[in-house]
Design a protein that fits this description.
single chain, alpha/beta, three-stranded antiparallel sheet, globular
């Protein structure tokens, strides 16, 4: 065997994974994904809905749904946005919440997205739907830039495409950025949506698609990949900063390494020497003895060419020196959800991070008879086919995650178990953090329906649980969630009373009214309102139990600042809350109506001669308001809510409807609806030409 050398030193301080969110086949969130893995669930099935008739794979449900209103995106723009952008926006929101960071906090955060798919862009270009939103909606760079823009992140923002290893390569870039001080927090993501059958055909032509529709990693039956789709998002911080902040740490990232085959039998044939090199480099950087690694999440595609090469590379680096009775455990999440291509690495990393956090290894499916080309015993490898708990004496644990791109870019990450802290503050339900007096628990949403959904989710989370600490819960609701326009606060000192009031909020049956009696017999108080308006519910009393808590609750509802640490006390620490309840609606390319893009030549509104109705109807439509909605004709288009791309869309639609070629400065020259209408009436549109 060729001796491998690596002159690089260790990578420095470990990085903590402090937040995670995902949407994978068979699992709409992180908790659902862990349940799927623990029970050995198989999420492979035939295409349904928009993918009706497609071959078996791991498909997401409802990829057309999106909460455009929360993100300030008009229906017109949302329909032209790649659903991968929409998916990342929602998952980044949930990942920040999971990291106990308000999604509106912004700051020096870097964004690194792995992706290698552009199906929606292909669909858009094949249709006739092209307008001012097409570039920002489908160009791959906006998978990262959209997140930075919306969340106010000022660190580096990049999309990484190394094929199937893209999301682990993105992780490697994030680690470097954190360690160079370019950002204080990093968001790392991977996304893959298989929206057309063209990608299936491409892989089939390569001879890599499984005809049986199941992934058999390292098994005699291995016959190719099964395509999957989904997305995952991680939030990373330097470990020292995470521990100082008291963050929950799922695991640490000790190191990562990336290289390329640099040749070989063909462009798409993996090379054992290069894979061994990237493994050796990663563990040297992590300062970890490869023989001490407990588990490796394989690239594990279940292909006849790839599996034996990967197995021999692992055995050559991590199997050497192991006793026969303590082989390296390996497995692949691809047997559960398929090969997520650009998001494959992030899926394997989230599985492994959750396994380290719970100290439990889920089973790998579809492994019954070893591949005869893989000498598992000789390589000191064992496919982990049953659920097993890691015993205390086996820790602290170190695991690896591999991801290899079709063009030869190999990536490997080394993960460690989170350090145990002796000085940790008491957690939920532990002595020293009890709520002796009423405390406010806060809720908010971008719509009334979202607020009700949040109340229902929190009530479901608390129902029947005796370990809930209301101070911890309240602190989390005040400091780890975005404060959105529709707000409510429940002041309570007991879980059962809190749940009862939350149910009333969820059902819309809470007692309210500006002068109504918002206080119940059980001492709870419910306040509902919006910043700047008088809250519904009983005003705070001048004295008595809960006075300070009720005053703080009223201040929150009114949008006034509050010292929340003073309200909940110095020993409170944020508890887990349910993720935000998105209010999702369908948005998709539509070549027949302007709802999914600009009107075509045949369907454009017809100009009757007076542009009043035309300008009003098109402006209302582009703003996403109900047909016939009133507009202030003397307000500027900017004040009405049109951004620069909306302005371009309006100019284009007016031009098509009127048969004119209009200047790009149209709305600068005529900045209000009244001015534009008058200009069109008088043909004063700065040198327009008739077709």
């Amino acid at each position: 065997m060729t001796e491998l050398t690596d002159t690089t030193g260790t990578s420095g301080e470990p990085v903590a994974v402090v937040g995670m969110a995902c949407r994978f086949p068979g699992a709409d969130d992180l908790q659902g994904f862990w349940r799927l893995l623990r029970r050995g669930g198989d999420a492979i099935g035939p295409g349904t809905g928009l993918r009706e008739g497609r071959r078996p794979g791991g498909y997401l449900r409802d990829v057309e749904l999106f909460d455009a209103e929360l993100f300030g995106i008009s229906p017109h723009e949302a329909a032209l946005m790649d659903p991968q952008q929409r998916l990342l926006l929602e998952l980044c929101w949930h990942a920040l919440e999971d990291a106990r960071i308000p999604p509106t906090a912004g700051g020096a955060t870097g964004v690194f997205v792995g992706s290698c798919s552009d199906d929606y862009a292909l669909m858009s270009r094949m249709s006739s739907v092209v307008d001012a939103y097409s570039m920002t909606g489908t160009a791959r760079t906006f998978l990262a830039n959209r997140l930075s823009y919306f969340f106010g992140f000022t660190g580096p923002s990049a999309v990484v495409d190394t094929g199937q290893s893209s999301s682990l390569a993105a992780l490697d870039q994030a680690l470097g950025s954190l360690r160079r001080g370019e950002c204080t927090t990093a968001v790392v993501a991977g996304v893959q949506l298989n929206l057309t059958a063209t990608g299936d055909r491409l892989i089939e032509e390569l001879g890599a698609m499984s005809p049986t529709g199941r992934c058999h990693t390292f098994d005699r039956s291995a016959d190719g990949i099964v395509r999957g789709e989904g997305a995952g998002v991680l939030v990373l911080k330097p470990l020292e900063a995470a521990l100082a902040a008291g963050d929950r740490v799922y695991c640490t990232v000790l190191a990562a390494a990336v290289n390329n085959d640099g040749g070989g039998a063909s462009l798409t044939t993996p090379t054992q020497t290069a894979q061994q090199s990237v493994l050796a480099q990663a563990y040297r950087r992590a300062a970890v003895d490869p023989a001490e690694v407990a588990y490796v999440e394989l690239h594990g595609t279940g292909t006849k060419a790839g599996d034996p090469v990967e197995a021999r590379a692992l055995g050559g680096v991590l199997g050497r020196g192991r006793p026969a009775d303590r082989p390296l455990l390996v497995g692949s999440v691809k047997t559960n959800i398929g090969h997520l291509e650009g998001a494959a690495g992030i899926a394997g990393l989230i599985k492994t991070a959750a396994s380290l956090f719970h100290r439990e290894l889920p089973p790998t499916l579809n492994h019954r008879r070893p591949n005869p080309d893989i000498d598992l015993d000789g390589l000191r490898l064992r496919v982990s086919t049953r659920r097993r708990a890691w015993r205390p004496e086996e820790g602290p644990l170190v695991c690896g995650v591999s991801s290899f791109g079709l063009g030869g870019t190999n990536a490997h990450a080394v993960l460690g178990e989170a350090p145990r802290r002796e000085d940790a503050l008491p957690g939920p339900g532990e002595p020293g953090a009890t709520a002796d007096e009423p405390v406010p628990v806060l809720l908010s949403g971008h719509t009334d329906a979202a607020l009700r959904a949040q109340a229902a989710r929190l009530a479901d989370r608390l129902d029947g649980r005796d370990d809930v600490n209301l101070r911890d819960l309240g602190l989390a609701s005040a400091t780890t969630r975005a404060a959105l326009p529709v707000r409510a606060a429940v002041v309570a000192s007991a879980r059962t009373a809190l749940v009862a009031r939350l149910r009333e909020l969820a059902d819309g049956t809470h007692r309210d009214g500006t002068h109504g009696d918002g206080t119940r017999d059980d001492g709870t108080t419910v306040l509902v309102g919006r910043p700047g308006a008088e809250p519904q519910g009983r005003p705070a009393p001048e004295d008595g139990p809960g006075t300070a808590a009720t005053a703080a609750a009223a201040a929150f509802v009114l949008g006034k600042p509050v010292d929340w640490l003073a309200v909940y006390g110095p020993r409170a620490r944020p508890a887990d809350l349910p993720p935000y309840a998105f209010q999702r609606r369908p948005y998709w390319l539509d070549t027949t109506t302007a709802a999914g893009g600009p009107a075509s030549e045949d369907t454009a509104p017809q100009w009757s001669g007076d542009p009043l109705d035309l300008v009003l109807d098109l402006t209302v439509e582009i703003l996403g308001r109900a047909p016939g909605a009133d507009l202030d004709l003397d307000a500027t288009f900017t004040d009405l809510g049109l951004d620069s791309r909306m302005a371009v869309a309006l100019r284009t639609s007016v031009a098509r409807a009127t048969g004119r070629v209009l200047p790009t400065t149209l709305l600068f020259d005529h900045p209000t609806p009244a001015a534009l209408i008058e200009a069109l009436r008088s043909d004063d549109t700065k040198g327009h030409e008739f077709r």
